[in-house]
Specification:
Elements (H helix, E strand, L loop, with lengths): L8 H16 L8 H5 L9 H12 L5 E7 L5 E8 L7 H15 L12 E7 L8 H17 L2 E9 L2 E4 L4 E3 L25 H12 L1
Parallel strand pairs: 3-4
Antiparallel strand pairs: 1-2, 1-3, 4-5, 5-6
Helix pairs in contact: 4-5
Length: 211
Amino acid sequence: MTFGFAPSSAANMSTAAHLSAASANPPTRLLEPAEWAAAGIPLLRNPRDVVSGLHARHQPRPATAVVAVLDPDERLRASASFTRRSAPADGWMFRNALLAQLRRVIPHDLRRRTPVRTAVLLYCRDGDAGWTEEDGAWMWGLRDACTLHGLRCGAYITLTRDGWQVLGEGRGGRRPHANSPAEPFAMAEAPPPLPRTGGVASEVLRRAAAR
């Protein structure tokens, strides 16, 4: 014969309240601004060009994330945009979303000893340009997604009604902003350099390039 004890109604209510609070406030994985600044994130040489190019290509609106992969010369190799789901900000969920987009648009670099390409994230949102916990969750997600895809973790950029801001660097600008139309600019691969040969061949190439 076995004996058991039925939980009291008070215990049931306490457990239900705990589960409800846990579902309403899931554990958030985020990076504080100081942690992000100390992570050694590589600086963009031309942040405005990167922002303008991604804005022209994807024309993001609030709640849109744009993840892009740049080569060592800061040329765009791949990019993807998606809309953030209406759920509590959590770095683990953001990591999964970013990783899914990266896997869709570009092969991983996990076989390299040192990452060569860099992933940057542009997030268009409401509110002002100041850091928020949602930004911290995106930072955590970007860093983790880069590690799992063999990329360097690059800049995190917010696009708000006030303009764009590279968080952790203090660099930004007023255009483009969250409500601005696409600017007449698109990131493109730079043309290959002309061969350094002398004589008539060099002159012909120079004239062809000048046309």
